[in-house]
Write a structure and sequence with these properties.
Elements (H helix, E strand, L loop, with lengths): L1 E5 L10 H12 L6 E8 L4 E6 L2 E7 L2 E3 L2 E3 L2 H11 L3 E6 L2 H10 L5 E5 L7 H17 L2 E4 L2 H6 L1 H4 L5 E3 L14 H11 L4 E4 L8 H7 L7 E4 L5 H10 L5 E5 L3 H10 L2 E4 L10 H8 L4 E4 L5 H4 L6 E4 L4 H12 L2 H18 L2 H16 L1
Parallel strand pairs: 1-2, 1-7, 2-4, 7-8, 8-9, 9-10, 11-12, 11-14, 12-13, 14-15, 15-16
Antiparallel strand pairs: 3-4, 5-6
């Protein structure tokens, strides 16, 4: 079975949640007889047939990027040619330009859309896009939501219930991987072995300004791994609040992030807007058996993290409630251990890559049959 994934970005241009989903399906799908190819836009120009382990990628030239949307003239020809030899076309939403490509190339193949997120930020442009969006989503064969929470709280998915499947995002278990003793020692020396950890891009919806506000009047060690447009503002905020125990580590190699996940006391994930549709970092924390702290925003974050079972859930944009949750876990090691153990069990039940890929393979086969 040949599956063509169509996405606005992919590795190595961008390393985000959508790209990780495509990668896991493409790599682990190989074991299910699924041959995956990925077409995406890139400012590195057009190129065909670049191999990444078990799958192939193709680039179309990114001509312009406007309002979080990439546009390309060459992609029409590229998509038409590649889709003609695919058995399934798998779209990754949202990307308004993708909808236009779908209709203008007139591809008559079974189609799947993974619905990664509602459109949150571009509220005014969304009103103009909405007719095309619903035309597209009603035209494809199946739509995949990444959690039951998102299905319940998305006004768009609510109108598509009859064609929606729920397939949670899964990741490969690397928690048992042996890590460099030297690397473990390095991070222990630098930040100790009892700290709160955040991993992710410094984006507007991640709620990191709320986390820093919550750290007033406390001395909890907090480690922030990531970069982004807000980094300078966050560092200024930490300085103005006179926070002495915040560690901005920047972007780190995957092995370093895994070591920090292994060492940390708790994973804190303060995203406060629905733009955070799932929260892969929470799955990573659960994989390592860590207690989780997140906000209730009606998305996958509280599908992964169940209040008082795998961690603590607080109201969004509430630094006092966040501080209280962190204090409760910090002062209750036995509770933190139990919540972490429950988080690991939930990971094994719902969030492994094997489970995700098997569900996608079953969906593909159902469309072909």
């Amino acid at each position: 079975m040949n599956v063509l994934h169509f996405s606005k970005t992919y590795f190595p241009d961008n390393y985000g949640g959508v790209e990780n989903v495509i990668y896991q399906i493409s790599e682990d799908g190989f074991k299910h007889g699924i041959h995956s190819e990925v077409l995406f836009l890139s400012n590195r120009g057009s190129n065909r047939n670049e191999k990444i382990n078990n799958h192939i990628t193709h680039r179309s030239n990114l001509d312009i990027y406007l309002a979080s949307t990439g546009f390309s003239l060459s992609v029409f020809k590229d998509f038409s040619e590649l889709a003609s030899s695919a058995d399934i076309v798998h779209y990754h939403f949202p990307w308004p330009f993708m909808d236009a490509v779908h209709f203008l190339t007139r591809i008559k193949k079974p189609t799947v859309v993974t619905y990664h997120s509602d459109i949150i930020k571009q509220k005014h442009l969304y009103q103009f896009y909405k007719p095309l969006m619903f035309l597209f989503l009603n035209n494809v064969n199946r739509v995949v939501a990444t959690s039951s929470n998102y299905l319940k709280t998305s006004s768009v998915l609510d109108k598509l219930k009859s064609k929606v499947d729920i397939i949670p995002i899964g990741i490969n278990d690397c928690s048992c991987t042996s890590h460099s003793t030297e690397l473990l020692s390095k991070w222990k020396r630098k930040i100790g072995s009892r700290f709160f950890l955040f991993i992710g891009a410094f984006r507007y919806y991640k709620g990191l300004h709320i986390l820093l506000e919550a750290m007033k009047y406390t001395d909890f060690p907090v480690v922030l791994v990531g970069v982004g447009a807000l980094e300078k503002d966050l560092k200024s905020q930490a300085e103005s609040l006179n926070l002495k125990n915040i560690h901005f580590l920047g972007a780190l190699p995957n092995e370093d992030k895994c070591v920090l996940l292994k060492l940390c006391y708790c994973v804190v994930f303060p995203s406060h807007l629905r733009s955070e549709a799932f929260g892969i970092t929470l799955v990573e924390g659960a994989m390592y058996g860590k207690p989780l702290i997140s906000s209730e925003i009606g998305t996958g974050t509280t599908y992964i993290n169940i209040h008082n079972e795998t961690g603590l859930v607080v109201p969004p944009s509430d630094p006092i409630a966040l501080r209280e949750a962190m204090t409760r876990l910090w002062n209750s090691p036995a509770l933190a251990f139990q919540l972490g153990r429950n988080a690991r069990a939930r990971y094994e039940t719902l969030f492994t890559a094997d489970q995700m890929v098997k569900q996608y393979a079953d969906l593909y086969h159902s469309l072909l049959s």
